[in-house]
């Protein structure tokens, strides 16, 4: 009868390619710079209060609005608080709220996307309409509306951003699931009488994880963006937190008078963090694309 | 084509209706007792009841919604609690101001973004491409108030080239107005640049790698002709839709920028209304923003259909 | 058939490729795709380059127009067109060369044309280089379209590409390529993806244009028969090098490289049936592009290979008359890989109750708004252990038929599917577990059919768990049994699908289909995504499993050779209608339906060419708006008159089991078809 396949080694070229791919990510300079900056801020968020030279909450009105010096590296703010200490500790709240919001939106968005993409038809149409309507409004405005209705608190911010980002992730997941749905392994599973739940979560989900990972990283950047913006307009993190957006909001009225250090360092902190997250996302994306 | 138009129009109406429900729910249902929300926890119960009666919020929710939406459709947006004036003129003035700011931002970013994307795509993998891509990636994610403050510091405070407030003196001509709007529009331009450039780049690369571009090159056409005639048109088609969807983000950015620059636009109006719990103004502002976005994406889809023969001319033989 | 081999005269060569090496940069590494390719095409010559996937044939084609993908690098050798080395030309010179001397046509014409530009404008562009006036360009465009036999050029020129059918699009591409009367035309799989009847037409056209335009041709294909039809010289490419070259008739009649021999032997040709014994197969699978090979590229799969072959690369041996082979053992006969003797006997057509009986099966998509009837009143039966071959071109509804049987789609009301005489529920969800188990499928593309996130153990194990009554303790034993039945070693159980070759993946898919001991297995083009050298082994496996397990197959394919080899009974579909059904030998021997006749004459074949052929004009009409009367009348070469347009013929019995849907009386069909149709008898 027909001839058996001869031995070929189980680790094929494609295996090496996968390893190559990982190595490639770590070889990309921009990815590494991004990762280093993110890790730096995570470190500050975790251990910041233990290493800063001053208590970030301690007023010292006699030393208010001092320019940067050897004593206060980044100067002091209106209430004489040490800006350097506040910038370091300021990572904490935003790096708690934004990742939590991202996790909520990723879980919710993935589930929604799987359901829309798998069932298609009426369910998809219905959810799509609501998602489209939600996406019609800028995140900041939806968040504003919800925060006015529910009252600002860190928990509300997490939930609101989690829910407003979920449709965006759902849309990405849905597109990937629709493509997977066309593949015959889904029909094969149906021909084994698998439940819809099994097909969605055991058969399809592992194959759409890479785009979800990229999307989640990108969303993390935007979650930080949104939390900072909401804090800036007073609907996000509340005083006396040394949060960056909040500090800028409290001090930007002074820049006309030349007290630039009260906002510039906080601004740079936000900018480096979001850019770093985006560079990491870009690194993962281009490794998956190749 | 006509079927496509009707379908698209129907979908827009459904979206708008859903949006109105959301705006209504967000501003009127979720806060629960509206009179209490406006007057605060220590107000007298009778005053709260009176206010609820005055605002009509003691009626059933559906009646309130029907009343609100039917008035809204004919342009009656109710009375502002904060300003004690009709909402409609407030919204109109704010809208005109925002439109000016948005227009300046768009006029700057659309050509820049597309050009950036094209240049990056034509130099794929080279330093120019990496530079544009990383710049776009970074610019797009930095919140507007951060870049805005840095720009104010540099151009307004240190160099003193541009005014740090966006509000121009009364009776200023268009040129002066643009001069005042330049600084506030740059943060918006930065955020949008990344998106537009990325889409344009992706579209270009896809078109450059396509079989039809190969056909054009192998026909012996000069590179310039290939790019102008075959690549650009197919490449930039998807970018049109992106530009439209970006209106939503642009308006979101307006809330921040108008606050930062003390500018009386729709974003500033929504922000003030939210801060002062001025629910009629908030509802009206939100629904207006949604309507503008819906119209913009409808317009983009139509334009896309007009430029795309597959949709315009319909199916095969 | 006696074409003289063309003696190459260097100065006059239309194309000379010398020692061409091409690498692709993949993730910072160079991967060599062509290892020193040499070939020459004399003026007016037609050279066919054949090879399976990944052998570098398309790379050779693109190198010949100086247009490699961005990551492709010519790292050695020359490509000389008209005495000029393409690898050294300045961009402007290269552009001029492409505008005037070399042109190319490739696969997938739908994507080769600019979707947002009218056909006429794209065609006229070809004349731009020579500064032709607009009106003249217009005239010449019309002339070009006429020369590729487009009846109404003005109308076609006003169209956008998506408004044309695939065959028309390819004609436009060919017209565009020939517009400036080039010296060299490169055709890279120009008919792959087109239906057989359309392919036949395009090939005829190419042959005729070759005579009209006196253009030299480099024809690239995976299909030996197509090359045999068009070319006078053939080169066989394997693993990035040429392994054999010669005049077409000589090379195919007297192949001198074991790979060529294997390729020719493994095709189910000459009316071979499964009862005639298993097919020849080439063992193993194609080499991975990364494999470092010291000796002969084919040594790993070769029955003649010895230590010399494995350690030193063989040179080209000149065998005279322009025939050369890159094999140390070119003078030795290649022994047959003797598989066991035939186990299969014709099941005969048992008159017992059929396992499966389909009656009045119809399917209309979107019945309310824009009804799209894809299948109408299909009636077939299948006996135990028997294979029903389902043949038809795109749009015939054959895949829909498979999905309806399996319950993945719901048929229109009034349709019945009976399993062992009991009606089956229309929807999969309503079928009993036993019914679901009884019918399984092997899909066309194993990459799509196997979940790439799961291990082989899990893929087959889960199927056993869900579909067979195997107790948990015995699942492992059953798993090993299935793996050995499809001849894949157990150590692959922990592998993921991507770690296996295409042939092995399809074996895993077959193992999964057999996990629940089905009674009927639907095979939906199970070998069409595979290379020819792997196909034979899969077909042998299917036949073996059938004879051991008495399973019935519904075998869907567009490849008549394969269908003929495997099937006991054949059903021919056209636009959702059953045109002919009957025992395989009767359907092939005729008299048959004119459409069956056209399908048979459309297949290019390596060995027998006869003058008498019928050709179909045009393409399969849209199912949205099917022709009135007999759906085939718009293309039928045997149309008798208005009756064909007005009245749909019934399915007329012409034998015990043989039926045809045609107005022509059977005697007359027989008379018409007996003229020059010797091919229906096995050679």
Automatic annotation (TrEMBL), chain A:
Membrane topology of the entry: Multi-pass membrane protein
Superkingdom of origin organism: Bacteria
Transmembrane segments: 29-52, 94-119, 131-150, 156-174, 220-237, 258-281
UniProt domain ABC transmembrane type-1: residue ranges: 91-281
Protein localization: Cell membrane
Keywords: Cell membrane, Membrane, Transmembrane, Transmembrane helix, Transport
PANTHER family: OLIGOPEPTIDE TRANSPORT SYSTEM PERMEASE PROTEIN APPC, PEPTIDE ABC TRANSPORTER PERMEASE PROTEIN
Family under the similarity heading: Belongs to the binding-protein-dependent transport system permease family.
Protein name: ABC transporter permease
From TrEMBL, chain B:
Primary location: membrane
Coiled coil: none
UniProtKB keywords: Cell membrane, Membrane, Transmembrane, Transmembrane helix, Transport
Subcellular location: Cell membrane
Residues of the signal peptide: none
Keyword Iron belongs to the record: no
SUPFAM superfamilies: MetI-like
Transmembrane segment boundaries: 101-122, 134-158, 178-197, 235-261, 281-307
Keyword Transmembrane helix: yes
InterPro entries: BPD_transp_1_N, MetI-like, MetI-like_sf
Span of domain ABC transmembrane type-1: 95-304
Membrane protein topology class: Multi-pass membrane protein
Family affiliation: Belongs to the binding-protein-dependent transport system permease family.
Protein name: ABC transporter permease
């Amino acid at each position: 009868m027909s001839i058996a396949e001869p031995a070929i080694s189980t680790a094929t070229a494609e295996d090496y390619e996968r390893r190559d791919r990982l190595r490639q990510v770590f070889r990309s300079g921009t990815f590494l710079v991004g990762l280093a900056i993110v890790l730096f801020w995570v470190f500050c968020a975790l251990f910041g209060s233990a290493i800063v030279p001053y208590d970030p909450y301690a007023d010292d009105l006699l030393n208010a609005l001092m320019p940067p010096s050897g004593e206060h590296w980044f100067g002091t703010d209106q209430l004489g608080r040490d800006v350097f200490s506040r910038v370091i500790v300021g990572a904490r709240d935003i790096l708690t709220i934004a990742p939590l919001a991202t996790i909520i939106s990723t879980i919710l968005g993935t589930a929604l996307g799987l359901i829309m993409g798998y069932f298609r038809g009426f369910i998809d149409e219905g959810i799509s309409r609501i998602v489209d309507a939600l996406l019609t409004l800028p995140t900041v405005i939806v968040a504003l509306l919800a925060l006015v209705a529910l009252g600002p608190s860190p928990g509300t911010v997490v939930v609101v951003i989690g829910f407003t980002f979920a449709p965006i992730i759902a849309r990405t997941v849905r597109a990937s699931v629709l493509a997977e749905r066309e593949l015959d392994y889904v029909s094969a599973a149906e021909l084994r009488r698998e439940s819809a739940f099994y097909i969605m979560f055991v058969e399809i989900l592992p194959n759409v994880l890479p785009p979800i990972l990229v999307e989640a990283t990108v969303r993390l950047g935007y979650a930080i963006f949104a939390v900072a913006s909401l804090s800036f307009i007073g609907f996000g993190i509340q005083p006396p937190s040394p949060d960056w957006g909040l500090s800028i909001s409290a001090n930007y009225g002074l820049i006309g008078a030349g007290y630039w250090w009260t906002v510039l360092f906080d601004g740079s902190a936000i900018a480096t963090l979001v850019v770093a997250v985006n560079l990491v996302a870009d690194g993962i994306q281009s490794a998956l694309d190749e | 084509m006509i079927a496509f138009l009707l379908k698209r129009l129907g979908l827009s109406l459904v979206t708008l209706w859903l949006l109105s429900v959301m705006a209504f729910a967000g501003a009127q249902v979720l806060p629960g007792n509206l009179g209490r929300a406006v007057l605060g926890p220590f107000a007298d119960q009778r005053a709260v009841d009176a206010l609820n009666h005055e605002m009509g919020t003691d009626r059933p929710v559906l009646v309130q919604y029907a009343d609100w939406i039917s008035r809204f459709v004919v342009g009656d947006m109710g009375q502002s609690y904060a300003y004690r004036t009709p909402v409609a003129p407030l919204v109109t003035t704010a809208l005109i101001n925002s439109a000016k700011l948005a227009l300046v931002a768009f006029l700057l970013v659309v050509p820049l973004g597309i050009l950036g994307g094209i240049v990056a795509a034509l130099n794929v993998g080279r330093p120019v491409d990496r530079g544009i891509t990383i710049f776009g990636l970074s610019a797009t994610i930095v919140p507007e108030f951060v870049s805005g403050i840095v720009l104010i510091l540099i151009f307004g405070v240190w160099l003193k080239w541009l005014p740090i407030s966006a509000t121009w003196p009364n009776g200023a001509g268009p040129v002066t107005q643009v001069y005042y709007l330049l600084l506030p529009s740059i943060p918006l331009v930065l955020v949008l640049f990344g998106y537009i450039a990325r889409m344009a780049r992706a579209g270009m690369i896809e078109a450059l790698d396509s079989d039809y571009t190969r056909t054009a090159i192998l026909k012996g056409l000069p590179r310039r002709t290939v790019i102008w005639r075959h690549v650009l048109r197919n490449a930039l088609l998807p970018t049109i839709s992106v530009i439209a969807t970006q209106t939503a983000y642009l308006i979101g950015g307006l809330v921040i920028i108008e606050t930062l620059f003390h500018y009386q636009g729709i974003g500033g109006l929504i922000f003030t209304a939210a801060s002062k719990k001025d629910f009629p103004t908030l509802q009206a502002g939100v629904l207006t923003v949604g309507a503008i976005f819906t119209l913009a994406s409808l317009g983009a889809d139509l334009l896309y259909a007009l430029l795309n023969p597959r949709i315009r001319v319909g199916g095969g033989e | 058939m006696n074409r003289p081999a063309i003696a190459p005269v260097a100065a006059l060569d239309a194309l000379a490729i010398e020692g061409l090496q091409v690498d692709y940069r993949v993730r910072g590494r160079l991967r060599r795709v062509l290892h020193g390719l040499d070939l020459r095409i004399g003026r007016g010559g037609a050279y066919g380059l054949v090879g399976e996937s990944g052998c570098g044939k398309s790379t050779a084609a693109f190198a010949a127009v100086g247009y490699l993908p961005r990551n492709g690098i010519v790292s050695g050798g020359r490509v000389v067109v008209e005495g000029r080395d393409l690898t050294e030309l300045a961009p402007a010179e290269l552009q001029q060369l492409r505008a005037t001397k070399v042109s190319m046509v490739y696969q997938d014409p739908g994507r080769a044309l600019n979707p947002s530009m009218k056909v006429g404008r794209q065609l006229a562009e070809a004349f731009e280089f020579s500064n032709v006036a607009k009106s003249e360009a217009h005239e010449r465009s019309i002339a070009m379209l006429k020369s590729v036999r487009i009846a109404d050029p003005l109308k076609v020129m006003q169209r956008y590409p998506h408004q044309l059918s695939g065959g028309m699009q390819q004609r436009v591409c060919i017209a565009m390529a020939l517009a400036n009367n080039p010296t060299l035309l490169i055709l890279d799989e120009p008919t792959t993806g087109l239906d057989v009847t359309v392919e036949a037409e395009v090939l005829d056209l190419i042959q005729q244009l070759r005579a009209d335009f006196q253009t030299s041709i480099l024809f690239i294909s995976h299909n030996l028969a197509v090359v045999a039809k068009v070319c006078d010289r053939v080169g066989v490419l394997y693993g990035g090098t040429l392994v054999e070259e010669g005049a077409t008739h000589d090379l195919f009649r007297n192949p001198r490289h074991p790979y060529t021999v294997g390729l020719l032997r493994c095709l189910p040709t000459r009316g071979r049936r499964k009862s005639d014994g298993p097919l020849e197969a080439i063992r193993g699978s194609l080499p991975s592009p990364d494999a470092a090979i010291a000796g002969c590229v084919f040594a790993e799969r070769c029955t003649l290979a010895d230590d010399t072959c494995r350690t030193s690369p063989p040179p080209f041996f000149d065998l005279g008359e322009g025939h050369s082979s890159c094999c140390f053992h070119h003078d030795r006969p290649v022994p047959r890989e003797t598989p066991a003797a035939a186990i299969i006997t014709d099941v005969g057509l048992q008159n017992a109750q059929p396992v499966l009986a389909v009656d009045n099966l119809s399917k209309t998509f979107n019945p309310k708004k824009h009804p799209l009837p894809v299948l109408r009143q299909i009636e077939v039966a299948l006996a135990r252990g028997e294979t029903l071959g389902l043949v038809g071109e795109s749009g015939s509804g054959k895949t829909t038929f498979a999905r309806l049987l399996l319950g993945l789609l719901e048929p229109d009301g009034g349709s019945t599917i009976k399993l062992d005489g009991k009606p089956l529920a229309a929807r999969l969800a309503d079928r009993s577990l036993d019914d679901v188990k009884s019918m399984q499928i092997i899909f066309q593309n194993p990459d799509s059919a196997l979940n790439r996130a799961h291990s082989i153990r899990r893929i087959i194990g889960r199927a056993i768990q869900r579909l067979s009554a195997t107790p948990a303790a015995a699942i492992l034993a059953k798993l090993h049994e299935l793996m050995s039945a499809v001849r894949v070693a157990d150590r692959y159980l922990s592998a993921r699908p991507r770690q296996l070759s295409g042939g092995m993946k399809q074996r895993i898919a077959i193992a999964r289909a057999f996990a629940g001991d089905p009674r009927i297995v639907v095979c939906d083009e199970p070998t069409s995504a595979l290379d020819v050298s792997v196909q034979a082994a899969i077909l042998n496996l299917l036949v073996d499993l059938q004879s051991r397990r008495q399973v019935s197959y519904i075998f869907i394919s567009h490849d008549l050779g394969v269908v003929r080899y495997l099937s006991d009974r054949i059903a021919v579909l056209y636009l959702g209608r059953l045109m002919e059904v009957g025992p395989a030998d009767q359907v092939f021997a005729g008299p048959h339906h004119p459409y069956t006749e056209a399908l048979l004459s459309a297949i290019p074949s390596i060995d027998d060419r006869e003058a008498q052929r019928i050709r179909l004009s045009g393409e399969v009409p849209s199912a949205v708006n099917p022709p009135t009367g007999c759906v085939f009348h718009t293309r039928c070469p045997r149309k008798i008159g208005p009756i064909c347009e007005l009245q749909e013929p019934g399915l007329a019995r012409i034998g015990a089991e043989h039926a045809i849907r045609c107005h022509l009386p059977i005697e007359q069909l027989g008379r018409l078809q007996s003229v020059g149709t010797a091919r229906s008898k096995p050679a």
